[in-house]
Amino acid sequence: MTRAATLVAAAALALPAQAGAARFAVGVDPSASLPRVAAHLEAFGHVSRNLTRLHVLVVEASSMRGAKRVHGVRWVEWLGSRNRRIAFTPTDPLASRQWYLQQIHAFDFWPDAPVLPGVKVAVIDTGIDATHPDLASRILETRSFVGGSVADTQGHGTFVAGEIAAAVSNAEGIAGIAFPAQLIVAKVVRADESISLEAEASAIRWAADEGARVINLSLGGLRDPHNPSRDTYSQVEAAAVDYAAAKGAVLVAAVGNIEDDAPVSPWPYASYPAALPHVIGVSSLARNGSVSSFSNRDAVYNDISAPGEEMFSTLPRALTRENPTCVDQGYSDCGPPKEYRNPAGTSFAAPQVAAAAALLLAQRPGLTASQAATTLERAAADVDAATGCTACPPLRDSLSGWGRLDVVSALTALTKGPLPPADRFETNDDVAAHAPRLAGAQGTRVATLDYWDDPTDVYPVDLVGRGRLSISVAGAAGTSARLRLWSPQTRSVFGAASKLEVARSTTVGAKQRLSYLVPPGGSGRYYVQLSMTRAGSGTYTLRWAKR
Ligand SMILES: [Ca+2]
Ligand SMILES: [Ca+2]
Ligand SMILES: [Ca+2]
Ligand SMILES: [Ca+2]
Asked: Which residues are within 5 Å of ligand 4 (an ion), measured at CB?
């Protein structure tokens, strides 16, 4: 939209368990007599020989203490914590057409469908078929910001909602990725397919106020940093995104498709709102692993990629009824051929990332938005020539971001830890009323910066005439930042007149220092800005003292 299961590596070592006993695998020296070793191990517990061809015996015993001293035993391994998993496989009749579920390992983390707390996920789009049999039970709230009902006459929003939240294993249709999701649906697209920034911003704010922890924005407008007349940056959109991010929502947006108004193809810039800090920008992959030709590139704001071609999902039944002989009413194979049979677009990649964010937050409700985003991004499977994208260099790149969404890797990273550090002062990207001040005569702040998602932190600080402010910053090794102090007249640190910058660190790097003597009569609220000067991320410690 333009603004305007499989069996997983299953050496399933499952044996009938004995009450009170644990299971141990015992490696036996190939030169030793397996029956003789087994006979000795009977002293510890029941021995089964299911794995004799591996020279391994499985023993059910309350303890295997001393078993390593048995002649011929090479090792003993407790099997309790190392089960390989058999993924739970949705039984929905059309799930086999959702090829993307396998690519992102959507359901492979849990051996059985787990019971997880609900997570509110907002879909800000064309509305929804609210009585669709695969979606009706998943909707918490709906609201139209363009008048009329929330009914989806275009299909886009219902398609997106199905990828995220279609009921799983309900003997109907498809399987949505985020089975704990509770949908908050905001309709912002007019009948002519245009989207007003006012509606979009109001919807983002509403969703955040309703407690959405994830907000999907499969919409966007062109970014062109070299041509202000074409660039569609919007203050009201940025303010709404900032509001939702400050409330703790994970914002996910499509990086956009080649637009008719883009002068070259592929276009090297992600659309807004993907091209805003704290928003996960999602690009599209083809089934063969290449990055879709239509998917916008961006060296900074393209964060992660997910399948976005030959997609399959729910559609409003009002649309599929126009094709009355089609069997799978309510699904995209019965939709308008041009738009919805095997549709493609970054719009359909983003919802998979939003759904994955919801799974992380369901698994670990205390996670902050940036921890969830960073976990998803860093756990992505690298996209490069070896995976089907000849133009993609190893590691993060402008075509695929950190790589292909991998739900299992992200959930595994979450449980294994360590978690990415949290920054409890966000959002503080500019001169803003809610940015926490550096209060008191001295103090310390421990926070984070990320070149791609959170490039700037701004701290207001109240200074008096003839006073001196001293600041030191120690960043993560290998990172590079710049420290600046802005005068009380500054309204925004972006594009501000240079005369408003009253001090800056003399060098860039991981360590920064700044000292400022306030002129007589210069009392007021100043702004300390720390910003990344090159790719990198990490925790920093900022110390201040006023004299
Ligand atoms: Ca279903
Ligand atoms: Ca790469
Ligand atoms: Ca920060
Ligand atoms: Ca910040």
From this structure: 428-429, 454, 457
